[in-house]
Design a protein that fits this description.
The chain is of the alpha+beta class and 171 residues long. β8 and β9 form a beta hairpin.
């Protein structure tokens, strides 16, 4: 997912065109063999028409309900206009928002709360019930160096079942 602010410090959100039609932060899945940065740039362009530069990792959310983790990156658009592509079946609308709409995804609620303060209703995302006793640190990194500080994890983390090969999804 990407956190993109405009000059008025409004945050870019996209509205899903199918399912619950929730507002969420832009982003999507990583394809096999694709880097996190390349995947996020591709998803942002597909969903909003924006070309962006990806910045630092801002947050990590363990989505045990989806057997996935969600990563939030800072991003800066190369242009200022948002152009939702007509052939995009997943996204109905993209817009900068000053406040989080009521119909927002759990991930959007979590990251909005972490970045901007509390939202009216805290998202209910089930935490891991698995206890592993001793916890070992896990460093999230890429070939250019560390992306994040230490995150505590069980010694043998379980990879998402529905993500063969990559083990990571940007939701």
């Amino acid at each position: 997912m990407a956190w993109i602010e405009d000059a008025e410090q409004r945050v870019l959100l996209v509205r899903q065109a199918v399912g619950l039609r929730l507002w969420t932060l832009p982003g999507g899945k990583v394809k096999r063999g694709e880097s996190l940065v390349k995947a996020l740039r591709r998803e942002l362009y597909e969903e909003t028409g924006l070309r962006v530069e990806i910045g630092s990792l801002l947050g990590v959310l363990d989505r045990r309900d989806k057997d996935a983790i969600t990563l939030l990156f800072a991003a800066v658009p190369n242009n200022s206009s948002i152009n939702v592509q007509q052939n995009n079946r997943e996204i109905k609308r993209a817009d900068f928002q000053a406040s989080l709409p009521k119909k927002a995804s759990p991930s959007a609620k979590h990251f909005w709360s972490a970045r901007r303060g509390s939202v009216n209703k805290t998202p209910k995302i089930r935490a891991s019930r698995r206890s592993c006793g001793l916890r070992q640190p896990l460093l999230l990194s890429n070939s250019k160096g560390a992306l994040a500080t230490l995150v505590h994890s069980c010694p043998e983390p379980r990879l998402p079942r529905n993500s063969p090969g990559s083990g990571v999804r940007l939701i």
